[in-house]
Amino acid sequence: MRAAIAIDVESGTPIHRQIYEAWRRGILSGRFRKGDRVPSSRELALALRVSRSTVTQAYEQLFAEGYLETEQGSGTFVSGELQQHALQPATNAKTKATVRSVHLSKFGTGLVRDFIYPPQPADHICFSRWSPDIERFPLGTWRKLLARHMRTPNRKLLDYAREAQGYEPLRREIAGYVARSRAVECTPEQVLILNGSQQALELCARVLCDPGDTIGFENPGYLGTRRIFDAHGVKLAPASVDAQGIVVGEIAPQARAVYVTPSHQFPTGVSMSLARRLELIAWARTQRTVIIEDDYDSEYRYSGPPLPSLQGLAGDVPVVYCGTFSKVMFPGLRIGYAILPEALVAPFRRAKWICDRSTPALDQAALADFIADGHLERHIRRMRRLYGQRRAALIDALRQHFGERIEVIGEAAGMHVAVRTSETQLGERAQERKVQIVSTRDYYFGKPRRDEYILGFSGLSERSIREGVKRLAGVA
Ligand SMILES: Cc1ncc(COP(=O)(O)O)c(C=O)c1O
Q1: What was the pLDDT predicted at 407?
Q2: Which residues, 6+ apart, have CB-to-CB distance to 283 below 8 Å?
Q3: What HEC string does 135-194 produce?
Q4: Which terminus of the chain is more solvent-facing, meaning fewer CB atoms within 10 Å of its CB: N or C?
């Protein structure tokens, strides 16, 4: 017998899946009609030269989904129950036309761009990422801590979380950590564990703003947050950033909330001065505005003591403090947190539950131990030293090869450096010289600066940094 379907043993798709798909597609497209006889599993196995159990596995799936039926004594058939109108030929053109006609919500229509990391060819030196050096992460320790929770099965970790707010021991550890490192004042009950600080920002948009509301935003400012508010139909009112941080006098008075990155403004690298912090808090108090404090890489400060968080200074002014483990551990972990004023805890917690129930529990348990056993702060100390050296190497190389032609702006902090240059077309020349740097152009509302770039240094060795700057200057 010739097989009614074809399979490709090289394709990488399991054979039972290919058989299932072929019958399913054949039935839906009308190639196999209801009542058609289907070869027995033995016949088809012989024709396709595969094991009978492979065919049986595919048939069982087709029976379970109602595509096939058996008639006692006479064999297997395409199900007579299938409605003919449901079996329209599913050609590609038809499928595409149907998809095009689906109505999208305002939110769905607002999602116009995928985020794509630009490719990083192996022969390029890429200052275009500001991620942690993942090679330095103590993976062995992390593995042991994960295994600890896998070995002693804690049923609670495997079930739906009892509370969307996050694993209680981790909330306790985070409350202690932010108090020690950022002078944040909170109890574990104010900590909400989330999938990265990106989710904290997403929940801010959902819980604090209606479409058409206004939010005060740094100009230039972080695109990741900007896209969230855009997609929710929230108007962004830009306020410029000077050497002390956001210019408070420029924040729209009707803003529901104001979004700031005070430790290390993204992208300029400016740290908000204490005077400006107090001015912003006083302004928010009179305007009754919520402050969203995105403290994404505050752990890395290379000179002088860190300035206390806005949250710790704000008193009665509501601050949503957003923190993340992406920069101090590794971004794939996808764990961040929001520290919330008491009145916002319940709405944020409910929004998190609706969104995705909870953050993966095993990772939360391992992370609680990682902090409690001192690994986190030890790792941060090491990385701060390492990134501090890398930053120093970058500044030194820039001075040596560009002198006055490049000015470093912002504070000695974070994982990237912002520069202004008198060189024209530095970006284009970098590309020709196999170096990647990022223009701040896209981060501006309105007219962008053309002379400003950011250079990420945390993931590059000192050697690559020096070589990269030499290439950029055209001396290598
Ligand atoms: C300014 C700023 N905020 C927030 C984030 C989001 O971090 P995550 O969602 O990984 O915690 C980033 C990531 O790079 C960032 O640069």
Answers
A1: 96
A2: 248, 251, 289
A3: HHCCHHHHHHHHHHHHHCCCHHHHCCCCCCCCCHHHHHHHHHHHHHHHCCCCCHHHEEEE
A4: N
Strand order, beta sheet including 257-260: 191-194, 336-339, 319-324, 290-294, 257-260, 214-219, 235-242, 245-246
Confidence label for 89 from pLDDT (cuts 50, 70 and 90): low
187 alpha carbon to ligand 1 midpoint, in Å? 24
In the sheet that holds 75-78, the strands lie side by side as 37-38, 75-78, 68-71
| Atom number, ligand 1, closest to the C-alpha of residue 131 | 14
Q: Which atom of ligand 1 is nearest to the CA of 197?
A: 11
**Confidence band, pLDDT 50/70/90 cuts, at residue 95:** low
Whether residue 23 contacts residue 36, with contact meaning beta carbons closer than 8 Å, is answered with: no
Question: For residue 88, what pLDDT is reported?
Answer: 58
Can you give the pLDDT at residue 71?
84
- Going by C-beta distance under 8 Å and a sequence separation of 6 or more, which residues neighbour residue 259? 201, 204, 215, 216, 217, 218, 221, 225, 229, 292, 294
CA of 198 to the centre of ligand 1 (A): 6
> What pLDDT score does 30 carry?
85
| The ligand 1 atom nearest the CA atom of 199 | 9
Query: Does pLDDT of 107 surpass 80?
Result: yes
Ligand 1 centroid to 324 CA: how many Å? Answer: 7
Distance 292 CA to ligand 1 centre (A): 13
Mean pLDDT (whole number) for 274-293:
97
What burial class does residue 465 get, using C-beta atoms within 10 Å of its C-beta: 0-12 exposed, 13-18 middle, 19+ buried? buried
Q: Whose CA is nearest to atom 15 of ligand 1?
A: 296
Predicted structure pTM score = 0.83
pLDDT 10s digits, 204-256 = 999 999 999 999 999 999 999 999 999 999 999 999 999 999 999 999 999 99
